[in-house]
Amino acid sequence: MAKKESTFLNMTLTLFVITALAGAALSFVYTLTKEPIDQAKAAKLKNAINVVVPGADKGEIEENSVAAVDGAGELTFYNVKVNGETLGTAVKTFSNNGFSGLIVVMVGFDSNGNIIDSNMLEHKETPGLGDKTDKKVSNWNEQFKGKNPSEFILKVKKDGGSVDAITAATITSRAYCDAIQRAYDTFMKNAAGQNTEEVDTDASDADNTETNEIVESNQKED
Amino acid sequence: MNNWKNFTKGFIKENPVFILLLGLCPTLGVTTSAINGLGMGLATTFVLVCANVVVALIKNLIPNKVRIPSFIVIIASFVTIIDLVMAAYVPALYEALGLFIPLIVVNCAVLGRAEAFASKNTVFSSLIDGLGMGLGFTFALTLLGAVRELLGSYALFGYKFIQTDGILVFVLAPGAFFGLAYLIALMKKLNK
Amino acid sequence: MEYILIIIAAVFVNNIVLAQFLGICPFLGVSGKVKTSVGMGGAVLFVMTIATIVTWLIMKFILIPFDIQYMQTIAYILVIASLVQMVEIVLKKVSPSLYQALGVFLPLITTNCAILGVAILVIQKEFILLESVIFAIGNAIGFTLAIVIFAGLREHLDKLPVPKGMKGAPAALVIAGILALAFMGFAGIV
To answer: Which residues of A84-110 are buried (b: 16+ CB within 10 A; e: fewer)?
Structure first.
C-alpha cells in the first residue's frame, strides 16, 4: 500500500512529523477558540447566577471560594453588586446524597438570608423523577422562593420539615435540601464575620440590626 | 464503484451502525434525544471526511508499519478540532454530548474507513466514502434518538407533544439497547 | 472506606458498559464464550490500569505545566495504542494460547472506548493518582463482570427459539437491555 519503506528512521520520522504538524494545527485552532470558549463558560455561569439572583446579568460579580461550615467541601460565593449596591449573593453548593451521587445546586440569598431563588445545576438524577428539581423540567423548586431557612425548615415533610418532596424522588429532594442548608449555614456564618456595606432597603426588619452594626473598620476574617 | 453508489452505501446497505455494527458506544450513549443524535452524527461526519481526505492525500508517504498510529494521530487531531469548535460555538450541545466527543477518536467506524478505504483510494472517493458513511451514521443516530425521545419524553427535537412524562425506560440505559435492537431488526428486514 | 465506595460505584452503580455505554464493541463482539470473555476482561484490566496511570501522569507533568491540554486526545490515544502493542508482544511470549483465543480482538482494545473513557473520566472527576488507579481497577472489574454475565447468557441464547428477524445482534441487544435494567437496581446503594 505505501511506497515508503518501513525502516526505523522512516517510521519515527513520519510519526514525528505528523504529530508535530498536528500539534501546530491544534495550537492554532486552540488560540482561535480560546476566547469564545471562555466567553461561553462565563455566559453560562452568569445565566445560572441570574436565575437565582435576578438582575445579576447587569451587575458585577465577585467570586469567592468559601469552605463549607460542615467541612464537606468548598462552596463558591458570587457576590452580585449593581451600582455598588449588593443585590444578593449566589452560592454554588452541592450535596453528595443524591440518588446517583453528586448534585450541584445554585441558590441566591439576600442580605437577610432569605432565599431569592434556587436551581439545580448539575446532576445525574433520574429523568422524570429527580430531574424535576431543575426549572427546565418542573417548577418544584419554586416552593423555596422567598423563604428563610430559619423558618422554612429545609427538610422534607416526611422528616418533619416544610418541604414538599417530589413524589417517588424523596432522596433527590432530601439532597437538594441538604445542598441549600449547607449554603445557608455557610452564608450566615460568612456574613456574620465579614464587614458589610449593604444598604438595607427594609429598614423595619429587626433581623438586620446585627448586619447594620458591623462597621467598615471592623475587618474581621472568619 | 461509481460515486453515487459509493455515497449511498453508507445509508442502508452498509450502514455503519445497523449493518456493520460499528460505533455503537456513542449510538447508545447520546441518543436520548433526536438533536443529540444529530449533533453527534454531524461531528463524527466532520472527523470522518477530514480524516479520510488527509489519509488519502498522504497515504504514499506513510511507511506501512506505522500506518495505524499515523491514522490515529490524524483522526485525533480532527477530533480535538471539532471538540474545541463545539465548546466555543455550541456549548449547550457540547455539554450534552460530553465525554463522547473525544471518544470519536476510538469510533471503530472512523479508523475502519481510514484503514479499509482511504488508505487505498483516491482523495475524491475517500471524501465521498467519508461523507456517505458519516451521514449514514448520522441518520442512524438521529433515528434512534428520535425514537427514544418520542417514546421516552413524548417530544421530538425538544418540542413536547403531551405534557406528561413518557415511557421513561427509553431515555434510560435499557431503552437504548431495546431501541437499537429493534431498529437493527427493522433495517435488516429493509435490506433484504 | 472511600476507596471501597469508588469500586462499588464503578462495578455496580455506574457499570462502565451497562450504564455508561463504554466498551460496547468488545462487549458485543467477544461475548460469544465465557472463557474468551474472562480473557478479554483480564487484558482490559491490565491495559486500563496502566493506561490510566500513564495518562494521568502525562496530564499532570506535561500537559498542564506546558498549558497544552488540547493535546490530551492525541497523547492519550498514542499511549493506549502503544500499551496494547506491548500487551500483544508480552502475551505472545507468555501465554500463546490466550493470544490465539483473543485473536483479532486484542488490537481492538485500542479502540475500546472504555479505556480512553476511563482515562478522561479520572481527570474530569479530579481524582488523585491513587483514586484514579482504584477507579480504573473498579471499572475493569465492572467491564469483566458485565461481559462474563452476558457471555453466559449468550451461550444459552443459541439454543433458544429466537424469531428469525431478531437473530444475532438484535436478540443480544435485548438481553443486554434487560441486564442493564437489572443493574439499575443497584442505583442508590452508594
So the answer is: eebbbbbbbbbbebbbbbbbbbbbbbb
Helix axes C169-184, B173-191, angle to 10 degrees: 170
Nearest to B120, CA basis, from B64, B72, B76: B64
A-chain residues within 8 Å CB-CB of C9?
A: 101
> Could you tell me the residue range of the domain that residue C138 belongs to?
26-183
DSSP A20: H
Query: Digits of tens for pLDDT over chain C (190 positions)?
Result: 678 888 888 898 888 888 888 888 888 877 678 888 888 888 889 889 999 999 999 999 998 888 888 889 999 988 888 888 888 888 888 888 877 777 666 777 777 889 999 999 898 888 899 999 999 999 999 999 999 999 998 888 878 888 888 888 899 899 999 999 998 888 766 6
Q: Is residue C17 part of a domain?
A: no
Q: Give the whole-angstrom CA distance, residue A42 versus residue A60.
A: 13
Q: Examine residue C66 and state whether it is found in any structural domain, yes or no.
A: yes
Number of domains forming the structure of chain C = 1
- Domain presence at residue C9: no
Domain range list for chain A: 50-213
**Domain presence at residue C20:** no
Helices (H) and strands (E) in chain C, counts: 9, 0
pTM: 0.83
Please give the Cα distance from C158 to C79 (Å, whole number): 38
Rounded CA gap, B155 and C156, in Å? 38
> Cα–Cα distance between A152 and B192 in angstroms, integer?
65
Closest-CA distance, C68 to chain B, in angstroms, reads 12
Contact between A100 and C9 using a beta-carbon 8 Å cutoff: no
Task: List phi, psi (to 5°) of C128.
Answer: -80, 175
Q: Of A172, A146, A136, whose CA–CA distance to A52 is shortest?
A: A146
Q: For testing the chain C interface, which of A94, A97, A100, A174 should be mutated: the one with the most C CBs within 10 Å?
A: A100
Q: Cα separations (Å) of A27 from A32, C67, C68?
A: 9, 10, 8
Is the ipTM higher than 0.95? The answer is no
User: Cα(C160)–Cα(C157) distance, rounded to whole angstroms?
Assistant: 5
Grid coordinates in use for A193?
464575620
